[in-house]
């Protein structure tokens, strides 16, 4: 019998379950890149479309775990030495956490987690785990790669249009009873003809490029591995050898690379200075990729015209975090990858990974970040330990 410690975001304050506005969600069996969507064996412990990412939803895992004699502990209390997470951590064999409400697994916490064998990210992005410490401790780190790529790509397209067209202030004028057309449009442009560039063109970055193509933008990218020539031709992509070259050339910059020690704060004052005046920066990758106060300075000086995304540090962000109130921001809490549609896929993928782990079968290669003491699978392709 194993102890499975699962950290999820709190239930809605209005009660659980919510009254769902739709009765069903589309079923996606195969992703754009040919990868099969999660396919655990047996019944799911939830109906796709239900809110399973919060504490009462339990990712629908209880029926499977209880049936196999395991103990499931679910909490949202994750920060500080007196948290439930730290209390149960020493006994846990499996820790499950979502990036939206990350249970930070620092080297200190890993040292206390003597029984831990699997750190499972219900979602995508495992930087809340100290990957080097996990590798040294022989812990496997896995995530549900691909499960919410399109959810995030759609959010990126949404916030690009939101910022460039000045949607949020215009909506506020309308809701307040106004008709302030001149004020609404004095910062409003079309994206057609603009240059867009993504730093990181993996599953999400490439999906964003594909979705922007019909809008008539010129598309640019940079990343560690160059895309196949047929994709570059299909999307008429301009490749840049590094981020500095890309940001000089475009009007809208998108961050879609993982966070690891050498990408932390790479978007700093020096990088902002290279942008065209009035560029827009979108970040749904990770908050720590950019220097918190450099963003505020760039918005206040007019070096950038807007900043949007859903990722912060720490999470949840404190009430006085400057990104909540800085000018021309289109921020939300970390939500883009946890739509009800995304939850159905990553909850099923979490079950699939648990079935492999407890059944002694290999975890799918694309789900692996760290395994056997080193980066593995997607981790090897996308992360670095330094
Ligand atoms: P991916 O692994 O498919 O793609 C990441 C790409 O980044 C890879 O192709 C890699 O080559 C490239 N890369 C790595 N280091 C780089 C560097 N220094 N410079 C340029 N490129 C570099 O990952 P993905 O599924 O596209 O997700 C990307 C990131 O988005 C995740 O790591 C995660 O942090 C974030 N994410 C956020 C949400 C959300 O809800 N906001 C959801 C999913 C993922």
UniProtKB/TrEMBL annotation:
<dbReference type="Pfam" id="PF02826">
    <property type="entry name" value="2-Hacid_dh_C"/>
</dbReference>
<dbReference type="GO" id="GO:0016616">
    <property type="term" value="F:oxidoreductase activity, acting on the CH-OH group of donors, NAD or NADP as acceptor"/>
</dbReference>
<comment type="similarity">
    <text>Belongs to the D-isomer specific 2-hydroxyacid dehydrogenase family. FDH subfamily.</text>
</comment>
<feature type="binding site">
    <location>
        <begin position="203"/>
        <end position="204"/>
    </location>
    <ligand>
        <name>NAD(+)</name>
    </ligand>
</feature>
<comment type="function">
    <text>Catalyzes the NAD(+)-dependent oxidation of formate to carbon dioxide. Formate oxidation is the final step in the methanol oxidation pathway in methylotrophic microorganisms. Has a role in the detoxification of exogenous formate in non-methylotrophic organisms.</text>
</comment>
<feature type="site" description="Important for catalytic activity">
    <location>
        <position position="334"/>
    </location>
</feature>
<dbReference type="GO" id="GO:0042183">
    <property type="term" value="P:formate catabolic process"/>
</dbReference>
<keyword id="KW-0963">Cytoplasm</keyword>
<feature type="binding site">
    <location>
        <position position="149"/>
    </location>
    <ligand>
        <name>NAD(+)</name>
    </ligand>
</feature>
<keyword id="KW-0520">NAD</keyword>
<keyword id="KW-0560">Oxidoreductase</keyword>
<dbReference type="InterPro" id="IPR006140">
    <property type="entry name" value="D-isomer_DH_NAD-bd"/>
</dbReference>
<feature type="binding site">
    <location>
        <position position="148"/>
    </location>
    <ligand>
        <name>substrate</name>
    </ligand>
</feature>
<feature type="binding site">
    <location>
        <begin position="334"/>
        <end position="337"/>
    </location>
    <ligand>
        <name>NAD(+)</name>
    </ligand>
</feature>
<feature type="site" description="Important for catalytic activity">
    <location>
        <position position="286"/>
    </location>
</feature>
<feature type="binding site">
    <location>
        <position position="284"/>
    </location>
    <ligand>
        <name>NAD(+)</name>
    </ligand>
</feature>
<dbReference type="GO" id="GO:0051287">
    <property type="term" value="F:NAD binding"/>
</dbReference>
<dbReference type="InterPro" id="IPR033689">
    <property type="entry name" value="FDH_NAD-dep"/>
</dbReference>
<comment type="subunit">
    <text>Homodimer.</text>
</comment>
<protein>
    <recommendedName>
        <fullName>Formate dehydrogenase</fullName>
        <ecNumber>1.17.1.9</ecNumber>
    </recommendedName>
</protein>
<feature type="binding site">
    <location>
        <position position="310"/>
    </location>
    <ligand>
        <name>NAD(+)</name>
    </ligand>
</feature>
<dbReference type="Pfam" id="PF00389">
    <property type="entry name" value="2-Hacid_dh"/>
</dbReference>
<feature type="binding site">
    <location>
        <position position="382"/>
    </location>
    <ligand>
        <name>NAD(+)</name>
    </ligand>
</feature>
<dbReference type="GO" id="GO:0008863">
    <property type="term" value="F:formate dehydrogenase (NAD+) activity"/>
</dbReference>
<feature type="domain" description="D-isomer specific 2-hydroxyacid dehydrogenase NAD-binding">
    <location>
        <begin position="157"/>
        <end position="336"/>
    </location>
</feature>
<dbReference type="GO" id="GO:0005737">
    <property type="term" value="C:cytoplasm"/>
</dbReference>
<dbReference type="InterPro" id="IPR006139">
    <property type="entry name" value="D-isomer_2_OHA_DH_cat_dom"/>
</dbReference>
<feature type="binding site">
    <location>
        <begin position="258"/>
        <end position="262"/>
    </location>
    <ligand>
        <name>NAD(+)</name>
    </ligand>
</feature>
<dbReference type="InterPro" id="IPR029753">
    <property type="entry name" value="D-isomer_DH_CS"/>
</dbReference>
<feature type="binding site">
    <location>
        <position position="124"/>
    </location>
    <ligand>
        <name>substrate</name>
    </ligand>
</feature>
<feature type="domain" description="D-isomer specific 2-hydroxyacid dehydrogenase catalytic">
    <location>
        <begin position="69"/>
        <end position="364"/>
    </location>
</feature>
<dbReference type="InterPro" id="IPR036291">
    <property type="entry name" value="NAD(P)-bd_dom_sf"/>
</dbReference>
């Amino acid at each position: 019998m194993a102890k499975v410690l699962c950290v999820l975001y709190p239930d809605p304050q209005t009660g659980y379950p919510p009254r769902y506005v739709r009765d069903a969600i589309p079923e996606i069996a195969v992703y754009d890149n040919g990868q099969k969507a999660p396919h655990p064996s047996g019944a799911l412990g939830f109906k796709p479309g239900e809110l399973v990412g919060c504490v009462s939803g339990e990712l629908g895992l209880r029926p499977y775990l209880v049936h196999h004699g395991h103990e499931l502990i679910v909490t949202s209390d994750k920060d500080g030495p007196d948290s439930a997470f730290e209390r149960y951590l020493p006994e846990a064999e499996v820790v499950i956490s979502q990036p939206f409400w990350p249970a930070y697994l620092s080297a200190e916490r890993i040292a206390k987690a003597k029984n831990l064998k699997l750190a499972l990210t219900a979602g995508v992005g495992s930087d809340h785990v100290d990957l080097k410490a996990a590798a040294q401790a022989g812990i496997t780190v896995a995530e549900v790669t691909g499960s919410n790529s399109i959810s995030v790509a759609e959010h990126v397209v949404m916030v690009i249009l939101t910022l460039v067209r000045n949607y949020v202030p215009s909506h506020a004028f309308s809701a307040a009873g106004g008709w302030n057309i001149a004020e609404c449009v004095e910062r409003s442009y079309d994206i057609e003809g603009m240059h867009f560039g993504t730093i990181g063109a993996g599953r999400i970055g490439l999906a964003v490029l594909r979705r922007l193509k019909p809008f008539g933008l010129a598309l640019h990218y940079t990343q560690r591995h160059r895309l196949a020539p047929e994709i570059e031709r299909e999307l008429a992509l301009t490749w840049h050898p590094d981020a500095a070259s890309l940001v000089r050339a475009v009007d809208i910059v998108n961050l879609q690379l993982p966070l690891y020690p050498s990408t932390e704060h790479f978007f700093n004052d020096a990088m902002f200075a290279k942008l065209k005046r009035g560029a827009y920066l979108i970040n749904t990758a990770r908050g720590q990729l950019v220097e918190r106060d450099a963003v505020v300075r760039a918005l206040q000086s007019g070096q950038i015209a807007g900043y949007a995304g859903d990722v912060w540090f720490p999470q949840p962000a404190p009430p006085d975090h400057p990104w909540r109130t800085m000018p021309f921001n289109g921020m939300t809490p970390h939500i883009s990858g946890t739509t009800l549609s995304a939850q159905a896929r990553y909850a099923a993928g979490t079950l699939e990974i648990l079935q492999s782990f407890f059944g002694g079968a290999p975890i799918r290669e694309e789900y692996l970040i760290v395994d056997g003491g080193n980066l593995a699978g997607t981790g090897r392709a996308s992360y670095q330990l330094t």
